[in-house]
């Protein structure tokens, strides 16, 4: 004969014993503190971690050393965003310099050249270029017409090929001529796409 199952006891605040640490699943942490890495012990991830608190040692985490995929990807995304901002700033300065040379008056062009030759710091040069672009309508319009697409679709000669052609007396064009483009300068181009590049 079977015995009836006893009813479940009512759950009160102190009725259930706490789970033993062996039954609790270990929480994974992103990276161990420096002391645990040096001791090659498991780090609990607190501030301070349990091992450092027990030993009364300094508990320092190196966030840059965290190589978990999610953390590393977040860091890579941040680095790429910062690099993109830097590239945009450099592009604006370069475009401004080109616009000053193309559409600026001789005073602004000569000032730009003098500043570059004087080895002025880049932030001062960038400020000058920005101010010139804003102050001169023709320079600003020239800036906005610059095509920053540098992918010509053609392989340009390497620096060593350029030097060997210069040594042999061949003229090198500033831009490769594209099929169907008109040469408005009246000069002839020595660029030959059939030559090895």
Oligomer: single chain
Average of pLDDT: 76
Report the radius of gyration as a whole number of Å.
Answer: 34 Å
| Shape assignment | elongated
The major pleated sheet works out as: none
Percentage of β-strand residues: under 5%
Percent in helix? 40-55%
Q: Helices and strands: which structural class?
A: mainly alpha
* Distance between the first and last residues' Cα: 96 Å
Topology as a string of helices (H) and strands (E): HHHHHHH
Low-confidence stretches: 175-197
Helix tally equals 7
Number of strands: 0
Biased composition (Polar residues): 158-191
Organism: Cyphellophora attinorum
GO molecular function, one term: zinc ion binding
Pfam family, one: Zn_clus
Q: Could you describe the 3D structure shown?
A:
This protein is mainly alpha-helical and 197 residues long. Among the domains are: 34-65, Irregular (CD2-Gal4); 69-144, no CATH class. It is 46% helix and 0% strand. It contains seven helices and no strands. It has helices spanning 34-39, 50-55, 69-103, 106-117, 122-135, 137-144, 159-167.
Brief write-up:
The protein has 197 residues and is mostly helical. It contains 7 helices and no strands.
Topology:
Blueprint: H1 34-39, H2 50-55, H3 69-103, H4 106-117, H5 122-135, H6 137-144, H7 159-167
Helix pairs in contact: 3-5, 3-6, 4-5, 5-6
Pfam family, one: Zn_clus
Domain Zn(2)-C6 fungal-type: 32-61
Protein name: Zn(2)-C6 fungal-type domain-containing protein
Summarize this structure as a short list of keywords or feature phrases:
7 helices, elongated, 197 residues, CD2-Gal4, disordered C terminus, Zn2Cys6_DnaBD, mainly alpha, Zn(2)-C6 fungal-type domain-containing protein
């Amino acid at each position: 004969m079977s015995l009836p199952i006893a009813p479940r006891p009512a759950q009160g605040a102190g009725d259930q014993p706490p789970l033993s640490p062996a039954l609790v699943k270990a929480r994974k942490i992103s990276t161990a503190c420096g002391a645990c890495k040096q001791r090659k012990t498991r780090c609990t991830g607190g501030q301070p971690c349990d091992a450092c608190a027990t030993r009364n040692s300094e508990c320092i985490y190196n966030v840059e050393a965290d190589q978990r995929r999610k953390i590393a990807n977040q860091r890579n995304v941040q680095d790429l965003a910062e690099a993109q901002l830097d590239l945009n700033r450099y592009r604006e300065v370069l475009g401004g310099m080109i616009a000053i040379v193309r559409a600026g008056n001789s005073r602004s062009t000569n000032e730009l050249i003098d500043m570059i030759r004087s080895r002025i710091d880049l932030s001062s040069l960038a400020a000058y270029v920005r101010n010139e672009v804003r102050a001169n309508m023709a320079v600003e319009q020239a800036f906005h017409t610059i095509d920053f697409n540098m992918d010509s679709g053609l392989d340009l000669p390497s620096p060593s090929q350029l030097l060997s052609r210069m040594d042999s007396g061949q003229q090198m064009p500033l831009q490769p001529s594209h099929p169907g483009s008109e040469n408005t300068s009246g000069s002839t181009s020595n660029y030959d796409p059939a030559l090895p590049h």
